Amino acid sequence: MDTAPDTVVVGGGQAGLALGHHLRRAGVPVAILDAHPRVGDAWRRRWDSLTLFTPRRFSALPGLPFPGDPDGHPGKDEVADYLARYASHFDLPVRLGCRVTSVRPGPAGGFLVDTSTGSLSARRVVVATGAFHTPWVPDVARKLAPAVAQLHSSRYRNPAGLPGGTVAVVGAGNTGVQIAAELADHGRRVVLAAPTIGPALPQRWLGRDVFWWFSRLGTMRLGPDSRWGRRIAAANPVIGTDVAALLRRIERVGRVVDAGGDEVRLADGGRRPVDAVVWATGFRNRYPWLEVPVTDPSGAPVHRAGVTDWPGLYFLGLPWQRTRGSAVLGWVGRDAEVLAARLATDRRADAAAPLPVG
Q1: CA nearest 259: which of 193, 195, 175, 197?
Q2: Domain 139-198+236-279: which topology?
Q3: Which residue(s) pair with 238 in the sheet?
Q4: Which of 31, 159, 165, 354 is deepest in the core (most CB within 10 A)?
Q5: pLDDT of residue 3
Q6: Distance between CA atoms of 75 and 313, rounded to whole angstroms?
Q7: In Å, how far are 24, 26, 52, 145, 158 from 239, measured between CA atoms?
Q8: Distance CA 328, CA 331 (A)
């Protein structure tokens, strides 16, 4: 393991591992800090039936194919095991059980990084924790009676973890739709609170997986400022779920604006009694340990393709960071390669700089 890293990577998921691989190849000393006890645990803790949209041929990190049927879709535990295998295969310097508590500017430049296992310094820091680390639940959730079971989608595991009766799923992105479908498959009464649902795309079209088409058409390379990139980001398509068939089996209602007792209250004035609520309401950016002014008032990183205005501080693995694929397992390696090249260039420039006089 590197004892004096040039670069510290915060986060040992797919983004951090891909970057670590490229930095190692470039000869840049790196330490990858991961709060979990095992590589891949962030995936292991997701719901039991979670399956990737991307087939295995499009789910690999740089340098190591994803094992198994290339046209099949891996489950979340397969992904976790693959990431652990990746770290081992390339002997990546992952420091497990190492929770970052502070990243702050160093007195002579660079950064001081405090963790649950000690402190270290680095010339550069890359925040590779992704965008799905702080679950968000609306304030109205506090108004529901204690008898109503509530959990964020990040804590949902399977239908058995919820009481019988009516379950409201609030939010209709891919996660909300998939959970609603699984609950309906298990005979639950489901109310899907979704003012809008993105366009539904089949998993396969004309005999090919939809991501085969995305790859061939260049869709995953679209940038966030391109015309089609903006349209796709705004549409937020639902992939692989037959939404029309689902809506015939459940009740769909509009936006939840309030709650009280055992009821959720809707924007159109309607009310629905519920026994449980799954809040599929997404995540918020939150970096309480980042003591460098690189976020906006909402907590979102301010960057250009992952590069901040603070010298030596970068982000990796954010949705639409450089392209549509920036936060997708099989494409994050491309962003990692670009960033690693920049970090290696910066390191060479540091080495070539003249020593201070006096």
Answers
A1: 193
A2: FAD/NAD(P)-binding domain (3.50.50)
A3: 200
A4: 31
A5: 52
A6: 33
A7: 35, 37, 10, 34, 20
A8: 5
CA pair distance 192, 111, nearest whole angstrom: 46
Mean pLDDT on 62-89: 97
Per-residue HEC secondary structure of 316-347 comes to CCCCCCCCCCCCCCCCHHHHHHHHHHHHHHHH
- Residue 107 token pair: 């007195």
Answer whether 0.85 is exceeded by the pTM: yes
CA distance 195 to 127: 34
Q: What one-letter code names the amino acid at 133?
A: H
CA distances from 184 to 21, 85, 145 (A): 42, 35, 24
Write the CATH number of the domain with boundaries 7-133+283-352: 3.50.50.60
Q: What is the pLDDT of residues 276-333, one digit of tens each?
A: 999 999 998 889 999 999 999 988 999 999 999 999 999 999 999 999 999 999 999 9
Q: CATH 3.50.50.60 region(s) of the chain?
A: 7-133+283-352, 139-198+236-279
